[in-house]
Design goal:
This protein has about 300 residues and is α/β, with parallel strands linked by helices. About 50% of the residues lie in helices and about 5% in strands. InterPro entries: DUF4344.
C-alpha cells in the first residue's frame, strides 16, 4: 500500500490506518507511460541531487551557504528478510534519504531536528509522527510496488528506477506533512491533498523530475485496477481514491508543461475537460506552497 500519513492533528498509531490505494477503474495507461528507460540515467542522477528554488524548487541544484536551526537525521535500519534487504540497498545506494534531507535543510529553516528512517514495519506504509518528529518509510512499501510492477509487465531494467521515483515522491509527501505540523502552516482543504501537492511543488523543477511523477500516477492506477467491488473503496478515508490521485498527478504534470505533455490528452490518458484547467491548478498549488514557505526559507533558497 501507499503510505499512511499522520500529522499533529492525528496522534493515533500511524500503522493502524494505512494510506490505501483503492479506487475505481480509469483510462488505461498509454505505453508511453509504461516504457521510460530513456530517462533512467537522468532520473537516478536527480534522485541524489540537492534541491533549491523559490517557486517550484529544482531537485537538481541546491544553493550553498544556508544553515538551519534543525537538521534531518537519516537512518537505514537493518532488515530481517531478503525482500526488505533488496529495498534497503536500493534506497541507500541511491542516497535517496540523504538527498531529501539536504533539500529540507537547504530550503527550510527547521525549528527542530527531524528523524528520517527507513525500516521494517510489517506493513507497506510510510508516515509522519509529530510526537517524535519522525518520517518513516517502510521497506515493505517499495517491496509491494515491485510486485505490482512485475505483475504489470514492467521491464526488470526499469523497475528499480520507477521504485526510486515513487519513493522520492513518498518522501516529499511525508515532508509536506512534517512542514505543516512543525511550522504550523495554515492551509485549506484536506491535508492529504496538500501533501500530494507539496511533492508536485518540489518535484517539477526539471523535466526528469516532472516525468518521474508519471510513475506515481501509474502506481496509483495499478492499485485502482485491483479493486473489483465498490465495497473495497475507502470513501471515508482522509485520502482521495487511487484513481482520483492518479488523475490529479497527471493533471499537475500536464499543467506544469502543457506543450511537453500534450500527449497525455491526445492519447486519452488525461480527460480533456480536466486538462483545460490543469495549468491553473498547477499555478495555484505552486503559488500556495511558495506563500506558505516564504517566512521559513533559508537565505540560500531566497537568494
Amino acid at each position: 500500500m501507499r503510505p499512511s500519513c499522520r500529522s499533529r492533528r492525528d496522534r493515533r498509531d500511524p500503522l493502524t490506518s494505512p494510506h490505501e490505494r483503492s479506487s475505481a477503474r480509469m483510462l488505461p495507461v498509454h505505453p508511453r507511460l509504461l516504457s521510460r528507460r530513456a530517462r533512467i540515467v537522468s532520473v537516478l542522477a536527480a534522485a541524489t541531487a540537492l534541491l533549491a528554488g523559490c517557486t517550484a524548487p529544482d531537485p537538481g541544484a541546491v544553493a550553498s551557504g544556508a544553515s538551519s536551526a534543525g537538521h534531518v537525521v537519516v537512518d537505514y535500519a537493518a532488515t530481517t528478510t531478503p525482500e526488505n534487504e533488496t529495498e534497503r540497498r536500493l534506497l541507500q545506494d541511491a542516497g535517496l534519504l540523504e538527498a531529501f534531507a539536504a533539500w529540507m535543510e537547504e530550503t527550510v529553516r527547521l525549528p527542530m531536528d527531524i528523524t528520517l528512517v527507513a525500516k521494517e514495519c510489517q506493513d507497506a506504509n510510510a508516515f509522519y509522527t509529530a510526537q517524535d518528529s519522525t518520517i518513516t518509510v517502510c521497506y515493505e512499501l517499495p517491496a509491494s510496488e515491485r510486485v505490482s510492477l512485475r505483475a504489470d509487465g514492467t521491464a526488470d531494467a526499469d523497475i528499480d528506477t520507477q521504485l526510486l521515483e515513487s519513493a522520492r515522491e513518498v518522501l516529499f509527501h511525508e515532508g509536506g506533512h512534517a512542514l505543516v505540523a512543525e511550522l504550523d502552516l495554515a492551509f485549506t482543504g484536506r491535508e492529504e491533498d496538500v501533501a500530494d501537492q507539496f511533492s508536485v511543488y518540489a518535484l517539477t523543477g526539471t523535466e526528469a523530475d516532472t516525468d518521474s511523477l508519471i510513475t506515481v500516477a501509474k502506481l496509483y492506477y495499478l492499485r485502482a485496477q485491483a479493486v473489483t467491488t465498490i465495497d473495497e473503496l475507502p470513501f471515508s478515508d482522509t485520502h482521495g481514491l487511487d484513481a482520483q490521485r492518479s488523475a490529479n498527478f497527471l493533471c499537475y504534470v500536464y499543467g506544469a508543461a502543457p506543450d511537453r505533455y500534450d500527449y497525455l490528452v491526445t492519447d486519452g490518458v488525461l480527460d480533456g475537460d480536466r486538462a483545460a484547467g490543469c495549468p491553473e491548478e498547477y499555478a495555484q498549488l505552486t503559488a500556495g506552497w511558495s506563500a506558505l514557505l516564504a517566512p521559513f526559507r533559508t537565505t540560500s533558497a531566497t537568494s
